[in-house]
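Notes from hallway chat w/ T.B., transcribed later so I don't forget. T.B. wanted the structure written out for a chain they're using in a teaching module, and asked if we could keep both sequence and structure tokens in one place. Agreed to drop them here.
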Amino acid sequence: MYEIVSTKRQQKQFQDSWEYFCEKYNWENDPYAKDGIRYNLLLPEKKKKVIGTIEFIPYNPKNPDSTVEGRFPFSTFEDIRINQKRVWEIDKLCLNKEFHRQGYFENFMNVFYDHALTHKPKYYVALMEKKFYRMIRISFGLAVEQRGKDLVGPSSALIPIVFDIEKIMRDEEMVKNLLAMSSSSKKPKWDQSLSIKIILAKIVHKIKPNM
């Protein structure tokens, strides 16, 4: 379950969730972009409880408030430069630690699908915290590419990534499998692990790296 942030109450819930983690882990709290699309991830059993957040921002390397370009030069990559109008930044991705390793991260699959279906991005770019990068890579396989060295900070490392979401969206079977990963209720750890291994095997088989 998720909601697009469109009211003051939803924005307050988003800020409370995200800024709590910024303070706890000493993460930098980037500005809330005026043209950003924000989602609250909701607990399926209690639909008013926010358990995670994610923000998508139209990519503009000249934007002084860009959450990525000032820290890593994505604009130097030709595929990003020539497709700039179809590139979005991913920012403010977090999942309440209480819900880690319980299958809830897979609920972000529905959020990515909703944004991609509505806005038709070709690429997502991000500086992603290392553990979230690993989870995204498990879910989306070789469509997620690390484009530079880890940016090591005081409490964690950020990974510069390019996510070819268009490649995912073109594959109807893969989309179906990814959406099936989303949990409607809390899943046992063994079930989550097995489903991820099965989906990852299908993804690796179907997506080949660019030559």
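Follow-up for T.B.: The radius of gyration is 16 Å. Might be a good example for the class.
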